[in-house]
């Protein structure tokens, strides 16, 4: 099921073709010279998002990522490979009191700059295009 997206990704994804999402570094945490995480602020932008609700957190992330890869690798209204932006973001949801992690997660792909004004529509109805306001992200 993922053979075509993986072939497309390996054909078209040399390191110089990966677009890093523009951000402002707010904080960087290191331990013994190793980066633990960065706190970043991303500007207002459009993202392709999918909310997953599998029994296991890791399974939700994996399945959400695979669906986004299909969108990136031609299963969109342009019929074209959209290119990779990094990082792919995972949003962990909490319950109403914010005391526990919820079962659902959102996996999101930043649309490349050239697609921000008119993003291709996904064929998968589970994927939605959202415009996010300026956002804080923790990255490892």
Order of adjacent strands in the largest pleated sheet: 6-7-4-8
Counting DSSP E segments of at least 2 residues, the number of strands comes to 9
Elements, N to C (H/E)? HEEEEHEEEEE
Shape: globular
Multimerization state: single chain
> Helicity level, as a percent range?
10-25%
CATH C-level class of the domain at 45-131 is Alpha Beta
Radius of gyration: 16 Å
CATH superfamily of the domain at 45-131: Regulatory factor, effector binding domain
Q: What structural category characterises the helix and strand content? A: alpha+beta
Summarize model confidence as the mean pLDDT.
87
Major beta sheet, specifics? 4 strands, antiparallel
| CATH topology heading of the domain at 45-131 | Multidrug-efflux Transporter 1 Regulator Bmrr, Chain A
Alpha carbon gap, first and last residue: 29 Å
Total of DSSP H or I helical runs spanning 4+ residues: 2
- Shape-level CATH architecture of the domain at 45-131: Alpha-Beta Barrel
Percent of residues in beta strands:
35-45%
Poorly predicted parts: none
InterPro entries: Reg_factor_effector_dom_sf, SOUL_heme-bd
Pfam families: SOUL (PF04832)
Protein name: HEBP1 protein
Family: Belongs to the HEBP family.
How would you characterize this protein structure?
The model has no long low-confidence stretch (mean pLDDT 87). Strand 2 and strand 3 form a beta hairpin. The chain has 2 helices and 9 strands, in the order H-E-E-E-E-H-E-E-E-E-E. The longest helix is centred in the middle third of the chain and has 16 residues. With 140 residues, it is an alpha+beta fold. It is 19% helix and 40% strand. It has a domain of 87 residues: Multidrug-efflux Transporter 1 Regulator Bmrr, Chain A, CATH 3.20.80.10.
């Amino acid at each position: 099921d993922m053979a075509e997206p993986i072939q497309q990704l390996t054909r078209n994804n040399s390191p110089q073709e990966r677009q890093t999402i523009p951000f402002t570094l707010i904080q960087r945490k290191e331990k013994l010279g190793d980066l633990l995480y960065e706190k970043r602020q991303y500007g207002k932008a459009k993202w392709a998002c999918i909310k997953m609700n599998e029994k296991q957190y890791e399974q939700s992330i994996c399945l959400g990522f695979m669906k986004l890869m299909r969108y990136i690798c031609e299963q969109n209204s342009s019929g074209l490979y959209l290119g990779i932006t990094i990082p792919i973001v995972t949003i962990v949801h909490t319950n109403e009191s914010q005391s526990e992690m919820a079962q659902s997660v959102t996996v999101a792909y930043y649309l490349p700059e050239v697609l921000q004004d008119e993003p291709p529509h996904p064929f998968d109805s589970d994927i939605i295009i959202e415009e996010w306001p300026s956002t804080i992200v923790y990255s490892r």
